[in-house]
Amino acid sequence: MSDPRPEPPDGARPGDVIALRQAARTWFAISLQTFGGPAGQIAVMQRTLVDEKRWIGQQRFLFALSYCTLLPGPEAQQLATYVGWLLNGVRGALVAGILFILPGVVALLALSGIYVAFGDTTLVESLFLGLAPAVIAIVLQAVVKVASRGLTHPALVAMAVAAFVALTFFGVPFPVVIALVAPLGWWLGRAVPTLTTPKAAPVDDGPAPLISDDALHAERPSGRRAALTLGVGLLLWGAPVALAALVLGRSSVYVDQGLFFAGTALVTFGGAYAVLAFVAQQAVAVYGWLAPGEMVRGLALAESTPGPLVMVVQFVAFLGAYRAPGVLDPWVAAVVASLLVTWVTFVPCFLFILLGAPYVERLRGNRAISSALTGITAAVVGVIGSLAVYFALHTLFAERVRVTDGPLDLELPVLGSVQWVALGITLVGAGLVFGRGWSVLRTLGACALLGVVVGLLRAAV
């Protein structure tokens, strides 16, 4: 590998690949285009950073993506943080990671407030009449995309099916599923080495990237740096929750939400889809922050805003705190809880990159990480499939029954309670996504419009 980086351009500090101001403008522009989940977000960064600006080489970009996919948390946001670190060090990582989520945080905070204020009106109810069924089609599309990319061996298909069955029929916790499949994937990666070989997309000839595929990052790992990063990161991560406990009491909703979503941030392998079934079950059945149908509505809002889909946790926190504000005004409580949960969800994302990236840069070519990822990717397919079942049950049927018999633990629909309008809009959404190839945002818009029309016609009758 070559070392070190090329001389910094005008306006850049020593060690920077480009000027931080220029990078910030680009990251903000990217953040406004990050609709459609991780696939769309990664595609925007590929086009902007690799193909157009030539800031990073294709193989280097794919390696960073592979590491971020292995981590818990939203891989697209972590990829932006990683590339920001490659370009401008710690400052660049913070700028890239924060700007990547900032528009979505603001938009979802506003939409959550609108939902609380006007959620019972005919117009808003009609809007969700279209949005919630569309989410089912979008989640099914995610299953197909992840399966086509990740299930390249019969053993991986079997692992995906096993994960789906464990979650859907036996209620096995999501973290347990991940803990079981990761070592299996590592073993399979060793037995079939070609499974972990990255498939690079061809890039048109052009100027050499500023960060070439074989360049070695200038920042070297050290025990002192790791200890300082870990100490500061853990302090920043836990400080808001500790402050809430001191000021508002351990039993307050803010501490419950902070601790729950801090823990969730550590097991969110495979992105938002992979953990939302777990979050929905806990938020509805255990804590009572939401009604079952509201989780689907929150995901619909998160789908319609830029940024990672895991931002749906902001909606969960907003509603939960608004309904149990304690000593605070309900609106103040909702905003405080929303920002607190956003903080505890994303601080680990920065910590994983800033702590691990210097070491990972020295381990490029090592197959151990990719091998473990093989099993996790396979399980994610089953997890997303389980999420699709959960959303379908709570959107398409008004009544459900829970069946428990020994290890069996599943929810079944009451067929006579089918919601025909929701089923019809789901089929329309599936036709637009799979048949017409429409984007997520365009599909949501069309289904939302259809829901508004049907809802207003109902009200007029």
Automatic annotation (TrEMBL):
<dbReference type="Pfam" id="PF02417">
    <property type="entry name" value="Chromate_transp"/>
</dbReference>
<feature type="transmembrane region" description="Helical">
    <location>
        <begin position="413"/>
        <end position="434"/>
    </location>
</feature>
<feature type="transmembrane region" description="Helical">
    <location>
        <begin position="372"/>
        <end position="393"/>
    </location>
</feature>
<feature type="transmembrane region" description="Helical">
    <location>
        <begin position="156"/>
        <end position="189"/>
    </location>
</feature>
<protein>
    <submittedName>
        <fullName>Chromate efflux transporter</fullName>
    </submittedName>
</protein>
<feature type="transmembrane region" description="Helical">
    <location>
        <begin position="259"/>
        <end position="280"/>
    </location>
</feature>
<dbReference type="InterPro" id="IPR003370">
    <property type="entry name" value="Chromate_transpt"/>
</dbReference>
<keyword id="KW-1133">Transmembrane helix</keyword>
<keyword id="KW-1003">Cell membrane</keyword>
<comment type="similarity">
    <text>Belongs to the chromate ion transporter (CHR) (TC 2.A.51) family.</text>
</comment>
<feature type="transmembrane region" description="Helical">
    <location>
        <begin position="441"/>
        <end position="460"/>
    </location>
</feature>
<dbReference type="InterPro" id="IPR014047">
    <property type="entry name" value="Chr_Tranpt_l_chain"/>
</dbReference>
<feature type="transmembrane region" description="Helical">
    <location>
        <begin position="124"/>
        <end position="144"/>
    </location>
</feature>
<keyword id="KW-0472">Membrane</keyword>
<feature type="transmembrane region" description="Helical">
    <location>
        <begin position="331"/>
        <end position="360"/>
    </location>
</feature>
<feature type="transmembrane region" description="Helical">
    <location>
        <begin position="94"/>
        <end position="118"/>
    </location>
</feature>
<keyword id="KW-0812">Transmembrane</keyword>
<feature type="transmembrane region" description="Helical">
    <location>
        <begin position="226"/>
        <end position="247"/>
    </location>
</feature>
